[in-house]
Design brief:
By secondary structure, this protein is of the alpha+beta class.
């Protein structure tokens, strides 16, 4: 099964999600995506990692932010608090240069993962970046405590999602549907639907881009 899951399958998953791939390396077994938002450009690297018999699917968002000696304790406290909140994905710190990155490793062994599993993990990573990209700047330049910065990030993200959902409901109100179709079962748990996450974040990014 391991031989049948590789970069072509990852590319297929990303294509099915409607995403444009920035670059692909068969030799390094990596795929890179570039995202543009109001806070600037960031990228995600998806690849396969081999170690003896172990095999992992890695999703990595490098250089999200940086930590220096200034307010270092507050920044690390905030990152630890986020790690306690989120799953999958964890923030890490490079002690050499202070780089903050978000990473998730999925053990594969001799198996593969389904499109729905990939979609859930990918969507959660996107949501995490969209929510906490301004966490460290809020502490360093906004003079907020770790707790205040966390609450500000989460509040801003939820407000954006609620605004997008409200706009969708307003648009739907103008559409007359004689008989509603019966609901279909979600492909992911109802408390975290990856399709909804990607759709809402896409709307938020598009909206911010139009305002720039």
């Amino acid at each position: 099964m391991a031989a049948s899951f590789g970069i072509p399958q990852i590319v297929d998953f990303l294509t099915r999600l409607g995403l444009r791939i920035a670059s692909t390396s068969e030799e390094e077994e990596t795929v890179e995506l570039a995202f543009h938002a109001s806070h600037g450009q960031w990228r995600m690297i998806i690849g396969l990692q081999h170690s003896d018999e172990a095999r992992k699917l890695i999703l990595l968002v490098p250089h999200i932010s940086g930590v220096t000696t200034r307010k270092r304790l507050e920044c690390l406290e905030a990152l630890m608090a986020v790690n306690y909140r989120i799953t999958p994905g964890k923030f890490g710190l490079d002690l050499d240069d202070g780089e903050i990155r978000l990473e998730e490793a999925i053990p594969l062994a001799h198996e593969a993962i389904s499109f729905e599993q990939f979609q859930l993990v990918f969507g959660t990573m996107i949501q995490t970046v969209a929510t906490y990209y301004s966490l460290i700047p809020r502490i360093l330049y906004g003079n907020l405590s770790a707790q205040e910065a966390l609450e500000a990030c989460e509040s801003e993200f939820l407000q954006g999602v609620e605004k997008a959902q409200s706009r969708n409901l307003t648009g739907d109100a103008h559409t007359v549907t004689p008989e509603p179709e019966p609901p279909t079962a979600p492909t992911t748990p109802p408390e975290l639907n990856a399709s909804d996450i990607l759709a809402e974040i896409s709307r938020m990014l598009d909206e911010k881009k139009e305002q720039e």
